[in-house]
Amino acid sequence: MVQRLVILLIRIITSTFFRRIDVVGIENIPEDGAVIFAGNHPNALMDGWLLTAKCGRWPLHFVVNAKLWSYRLLVPVLNATGAVPVYRREEHGGEVDNQQAFERLYEVIESGNCMGIFPEGVSHAESKMFRLKTGAARIALTVAARGKTKVRIIPCGLNYIHRHRFRSQVLIEFGQPIFIDDHWVAEFQKDNQGTVIKLTDYLASALAGVTLNAPDWRTLRFAQTARRLYKPSSAVLSPGEYVELNRRFVEQYLEISEEPDIKAFQNAVENYQARLDMLGLKDHQLRKPVTLASAFRKVLFRALIIVVLLPAAIPGALLHLPVGWIAAIVGERFSYEMDDVATLKVFATILLLPVLYLGIAIFVGLNFGAWWAIATVLGLSLSFFASVRLIEAEVGLLLSMLSVLRLARLGSEVEDLRAVRKELVLQIRELVDRFIEPGAKRMFTQGDFRT
C-alpha cells in the first residue's frame, strides 16, 4: 500500500514538474522477468523518479549512494521505494564493503524483480557521459552465472531539455535489451575481470546510442545551432526527434571537424550566435518576418487564456507561489552540484505543500466541518494546476511582447541578421548533402525545405 502511494506521488511530481515527457522504446521492456535498468545520470534523484514513473515495472529497486541515508527526511522515501545503499570508494578512501548490498541486489533480480542503476556512479552536468563503473556488468554477470534466472539489461537514455526549468521537457529512450546469455556466462567463468570490462564497454556503447553526448559544450552548442538552421520552418520536432537530430549533427561533426569548409562554417555560426546573444534575440525569431497583425493575434490569444484561467488560479497562486519561491531559493542556494538543483526544488515543494494543505484543512475543519475541509483541499489542488497553466501563459505573453519590441527596435540589425541566417541555412543544407553517408535515412524531404 505504501509503495503504491509512493509511486503515485512520484508520477504526480514528474508530470507536474515536466510539461512533456516523451517515452521511446517502451516495447523493449519485458512485461515480466528480471531486468536491470541502466541509465545515464544527469539530474540526481529526478532520473530515478522518471524511470520509476515511466518504465512500467514495479517494484524498481535503485542502487543509491549510501550518504543519502544521512538525510533523515529522505529515509522514509528511500526505504519505501526499496532503494539499496551502496558506498562509493571515492568517498571512503577506497576501503568499502558493499557485499551486503550486492547480495540484496542478487535477491531482487533472482526473484524476477527489477533493479535500477546509474553506472556513471555520480550525477553530473557535463556534456557527455562519464566513464562507466563496472558494478552493473558485474551484478548482471554474477546473477546469470548463479543460474537461477535469466538477466536482461535495458539501456536508458535520459535527455532533458532545460532540465532545471519548471515545466520543461524530457525524452526517455529505452534501448534494445542486452541479454546475458550462456555465451556471456561462459566468458565470465573463464575471465572474470576481462568479461566485466567487456560488458561495461558494450553497455557504454548502448547508452551512447540513446543519449546525446559531445566532447565539450562548444561542440554541443554549435551542433544545436546548426540543427536549428538546418530544420525546415514547417517541421515540428518531438523531443525524440530533437535529440536524434542533435545526435546526428554531433556524430557527423566529430568525423569531419578538420575539413576547411566545416571550420569556416563553424566560425560563421558562432559569430551569428554571438550577435544573437548580444542583442538578446533567439534564432527562431528570425525564421520569418513577424507582422504586426500576427504578433497582435498571438498576444491577444495568450491574454485571453490568462483571463479564462485567472479566477480559478488566484487562490492557488496566492497560496502556492510562496512555496514555489522558497523551493527555487532552496534549489539554487543549497545545491552543491549543478545536477541536483531540480531535485532540491522538488523536495522543498514536497515538504512544504503537505504542511500548507494540512494547516488549511485543520483551520477549515475546525471552523466549518470535515466535509468543507476536504472540499477546500480538493479545490486548492485544482487551483494549483490552473495556476501552473496561468504562469505558463503569462511567461508566453511576456516573451511575445518582448520579442515584438526587440524586433521593432532593432530594425536594421535584425534585417542584417536575417540575411546572414539565410546564407547559413543554404550553407548547412549544402554541407549536409555533401557529407551525409550514402543511403542514410533522412529526417526531412526536399518538399519539407520548399515549404
- The helix-and-strand class reads alpha/beta
Q: Report the CATH superfamily of the largest domain.
A: Glycerol-3-phosphate (1)-acyltransferase
Which percent bin holds the helix content?
55-70%
Do you know the CATH architecture of the largest domain? 3-Layer(aba) Sandwich
Percentage of β-strand residues? 5-15%
Radius of gyration: 25 Å
The number of distinct structural domains comes to: 2
Distance between the termini: 54 Å
Please describe the structure with a list of short key phrases separated by commas or semicolons.
single chain; 451 residues; alpha/beta; Glycerol-3-phosphate (1)-acyltransferase; 8-stranded mixed beta sheet; 15 helices; 10% strand; flat
Give an account of the 3D structure.
This protein has 451 residues and is an alpha/beta fold. It contains 15 helices and eight strands. Strands 1, 2, 3, 4, 5, 6, 7 and 8 form an eight-stranded mixed sheet that branches. The protein starts with a helix and ends with a helix. 29% of the residues are buried. The mean pLDDT is 84.
Describe how the helices and strands are arranged.
Blueprint (H helix, E strand, L loop, with lengths): L1 H16 E7 L10 E5 L5 H10 L5 E6 L9 H6 L3 E3 L12 H12 L3 E4 L17 H12 L4 E11 L6 E7 L3 E3 L1 H9 L1 H17 L8 H14 L8 H18 L3 H20 L12 H42 L7 H28 L1 H41 L1 H24 L10 H5 L1
Parallel strand pairs: 1-7, 2-5, 2-6, 3-4, 3-5
Antiparallel strand pairs: 6-7, 6-8
Helix pairs in contact: 1-2, 5-6, 5-7, 6-7, 8-9, 10-14, 11-12, 11-13, 12-13
Offer a quick outline of the entry.
The chain is an alpha/beta fold and 451 residues long. Helix content is 61%, strand content 10%.
